[in-house]
Specification:
Length: 227
């Protein structure tokens, strides 16, 4: 199966470099995306531009792909499912939940001169980075790129309720499936609360498993694609 890989804020397609060969060895075709304004060399982009890039990747696949969204890009993956419900086989969300309709995409971090730079590791102290040693943090930080403010403050809009019938796998890295279920049922993700086919996978890592546990992540994604 084609597996479209969308990394979260500040990361381009190279974030999946250690996952790609593992997925290939497991018989799948990984398609890591570098989004407009987020590593492709353009000076600016909007949330709509990024969504169009994901939709172009979906439309270029011969069958129905698995669409994977990491962190903030959980929303981008879900927006793509909303726009192409007949073309997406399944959605996998790693360490993130879709924003609600009418809310900003990802405006939790401060902008500087029109872009949102990687804020360093201090905001992520705790379970999110517990599995990253200093060299791993340095390597990951060196690959980050500022994200246009026009992306992070873009307003999320959903239009097609058929998205709720697409199977969703919630991959739980720095939190547990039990915690994720509780958050969803108590209203922290109104989108996933309406999903009719919702499963969970426990990864027991930090927030960036593509860096710290690429083989294990690939296995979880391959199993999702096979099921």
């Amino acid at each position: 199966m084609d597996i479209i890989l969308i990394a979260g804020l500040w990361l381009d397609g190279s974030a999946w470099d250690d996952v790609v060969p593992e997925l290939t060895a497991l018989g799948h075709r990984p398609l890591p995306l570098t989004l407009p304004g987020q590593g492709d060399g353009t000076a600016s982009a909007t949330l709509d531009d990024q969504l169009e890039a994901v939709l172009a990747a979906i439309d270029a696949t011969p069958g129905k792909p698995l669409v994977v969204g990491h962190s903030a890009a959980a929303t981008l993956a879900w927006l793509a499912a909303d726009a192409r419900p007949e073309k997406v086989a399944k959605v996998a969300l790693i360490g993130g939940f879709p924003s609600d309709d009418g809310r900003p995409y990802a405006d939790d971090f401060a902008a500087e001169d029109g872009v949102v730079p990687f804020p360093g590791w201090t905001p992520f102290d705790g379970p999110e980075t517990a599995d990253l040693d200093r060299p791993a943090r340095d390597r990951l930080a060196s690959t980050t790129v500022p994200v246009p403010e026009t992306v992070t403050k873009g307003i999320v809009h959903f239009t097609d309720d058929r998205r709720f019938d697409i199977p969703v796998l919630v991959i739980c890295p720095e939190f547990t499936p039990t915690q994720a279920q509780h958050w969803i049922t108590t209203g922290e993700s109104t989108e996933l609360a309406r999903a009719t086919h919702l499963d969970y996978a426990n990864l027991d890592s930090g927030h960036w498993p593509m860096t710290s546990r690429p083989r294990e992540l690939a296995r979880v994604l391959a199993e999702a694609a096979n099921s």
